[in-house]
Structure formats: structure tokens, C-alpha cells
């Protein structure tokens, strides 16, 4: 059996939210960009990315996992990371870890207003 090595390990992500307007405002403020409404099988708003071919994802009306128990997607933010952490807290989310330095940069774990786990990375 040969091993498959994709260009990107993740190709798309979806974050279930209970209130689209609140989630769009939260992620837009934290990431400092605008989520774009998309056509699809249900309402959705796409995270901004470099171009249409870039790995991205969207929020959609759904049932989030219990607080902090779902998967964690790490989202790119502009430096400094501390400013993005303040935007999380200031917009109804929670920062739930200290900053973690790794060779590729730094990240922090957070929860959105629905309790979805996500990381901020730069």
C-alpha cells in the first residue's frame, strides 16, 4: 500500500453555530476580516482567504458540540497574537490557554460564544 501525502492535510472546515449574525460578527471582529455569505444546502458564511483556491471554511446554523469538546481548528490572525486574544474576550468568547510557542509560530486555544474550540495562530 502506498502512502498518500496531500498538499494540505485539511481542505475545508465547517463550524456549527446557533446564531449566524452573532458568529459572523464574532469571527469577523476576532480575525479582522469579513465572512462572505455563500449559496449552499443551508445558510453559510465563508471565512476570508487569499483566493478561492486557498484552504478555508465556513460557519453554518448547526448544533455545536458541548463546550470545548469538539475538534479544534486553528485560524490565522495578524500579529500581535495578544491583540487577537483581547478581541476574543471583548466579543463574547474565551481564551482558555496561555500562548504556546512552536517552531512555526505561536498559538492560543479559545472558545467562541457557542463553546466551539478554536485556536488563533500567527
UniProtKB/TrEMBL annotation:
Q: Which SUPFAM superfamilies match?
A: Glyoxalase/Bleomycin resistance protein/Dihydroxybiphenyl dioxygenase (SSF54593)
- Superkingdom field: Bacteria
* Pfam families the UniProt entry points to: Glyoxalase
Residues that span the membrane, as ranges: none
Where the record annotates domain VOC, the positions are 9-122
InterPro entries from the UniProt entry: Anthracycline_SecMetBiosynth, Glyas_Bleomycin-R_OHBP_Dase, Glyas_Fos-R_dOase_dom, VOC_core
What name does the UniProt record give this protein? Answer: VOC domain-containing protein
